[in-house]
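Weekly sync notes, structure subgroup
Attendees: PM, AL, DS (notes)

Item 1: joint prediction request from the bench team. They want all two components modeled as one assembly rather than separately. Inputs as received:
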Amino acid sequence: MKEPGDDTVISIVGLTKRFNGRTVVDDVALDVRRGEIVGFLGPNGSGKTTTIRMICGLLKPDAGSGTCLGLDILTQSTRIKREVGYMTQRFSFYEDLTIRENLDFVARVYDLDDRPRRVAETIARLGLERRRDQLAGSLSGGWKQRLALAASVMHQPKLLLLDEPTAGVDPQARREFWDEIHRLAAEGLTVLVSTHYMDEAERCHRIVYIAYGRIVARGTVAEVIARSGLSTIIVSGANVNKIAALVQGRDGVEQVAPFGNDLHVVGPDAALLKQAVDAAVAEVGGGVTAAPGATGLEDVFIRLMQQASVADRTSNGGKA
Amino acid sequence: MSASSAFSLSRVLAMMIKEFIQLKRDRMTFAMILAIPIMQLVLFGYAINTDPKELPTLVTSADNGPGVRAVMTALATSRYFALRPGFVSEEQASRALVDGSAAYVISIPPDFERDLARGLRPQLLIEADATDPSASANALAGLPEILASALSTVLTGPLAAEAAGASPVDIVVHRRFNPEGITAYNIVPGLLGTILTMTTILMTALALTRERERGTLENLMATPATPFEIMIGKIVPYIGIGTLQVAIIIVCARVLFAVPMQGSLALLIGITFLFIAANVTLGYTFSTIAKTQMQAMQMTFFWFLPSILLSGFMFPFRGMPDWAQVIGAVLPLTHYIRSVRGIMLKGAGPADLVGEIWPLAAFWLAVGAIALLRYRRTLD
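Output from the run, pasted for the record:
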């Protein structure tokens, strides 16, 4: 299974990274196949960026091994860099160069042949012909991100690593960005993308959830939700605020979150949950309706995060 | 006082507290605040001495006897001259002045003893390296008195009376390389090195920290570009800029100050290239250590201060205590200034400057190695 067949793009086991004695990435295993869009999710500081940096050779792992595009991540990082496109969290092209100068720089760094044509093509694909001599720093957030994506795939990488690519970008630009990602994946590009956004997670073929440096869930969105075993009851009506206060902390209730005029009550045991909600509804004396609803990805993640937090405190408790 | 437009002590206090907290966190600035005054005091207080003593002196002699011995003893005890024991040939002496290993050469003519005994006031020739006029001035001014008192013990009988009057020897001073003692001859070549130090180090120190601060470094490191390629690519443009500065200064030195150019321009360009390369590599090393552009500027300043004070640019190198000379000998500026003065004023050739060229090359290689080692670790 570890044998990097034609289909395996990333195959790593036991990946671990420590900074000043603190374990940031802990025994992470990851398998990604060709053409997949894998969403890498997790709270801030959970080790997403560090993992991505280890895959593309920007950081040396303290433990673990694996391959990326059939190349050893420990010894062949120079060759990996040639085959991988990496888009950093922050816009990391030169704001004081024009769009064309930036692309030209990238083309030279990757030693691309037929450079002027490739640069012109990339500009054309972006639809930036008229603005190609504009400084990159003067572009809006959405355009900067499109430019960064175009620059990251100009050398035709086989794997694209995106680190929170859509932070601070408006919904329209995000939508277009994801359409582009799917187009690239359909052409055979493999994509590993980290994100906070649930709607973006749902646009991935598969998701991996990491918390406190450990992978705590993986699979398709439906699988992750199903495996969580959570049930949800949606309460709506005039008195939802009172209900919220009443159900909080009762047996079987784990999360209580208002969504507009509705209240989502989530718990691991469907029967207990119904009991608790029914009791609260009875106490306020009606005026509300309670009905079973679909559990969202966000509810699952909040649960996973809380569980991981408890586990982390237990395992790291002995440390100074 | 609660009106929001009025002056509020609380708001001023808020700013002050915040400034102190930030200052405390910025270790580098904090270190500079403490280290700069200490460094300045030590350097100006102990290292700098505008009246250099113990200057290396060679003697060529065509005669020997009690008079010659008295002269040499007197020179040695005056503490201005550090006499190399024994005599050297004229050729050796002249060479030593050019390569800078001697500051003075004293020549005793034939029949010195005889003429001295007859009261004929024999000539005593003193050649001084006058490239730095101020460094040699005090020793030369004190010379007649030193010799007069020394010879008074040798001269007895009727000659003693003569000794008390005019000097018993005729002191002839040759100020070599800068006979008119023009300060600009000394300053302009020195400025060449100083300006290059300041600009080349600063420009390269900012080069990598700017990438880091703007976040472009991470992207650069994810590309196939190797640290060595990045270093070369960053350094070469600044070597070019440094070369342009040199051209400007040399033309100005000639046109505005009429500084002579005794030696080979090609040699000057070659050594200048080595010096710029060493500085630019040092700047690059700074930029691998500094986290921000601000820190890079502070480090450059920290380097610049001793360079200017201990290199022999502002104050005579030989006037400094040994520890300061050791520090000065490590600085590239010291060797560069000596080379430029050597080539422009003394017409020194490659053989005369070997002692300045190898320290520059060694410094460059050492700093380059540090830069490469440092760079590999930057993201980890």
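Discussion: The mean pLDDT of chain A is 88.
Action: AL to compare against the crosslinking data before next sync.
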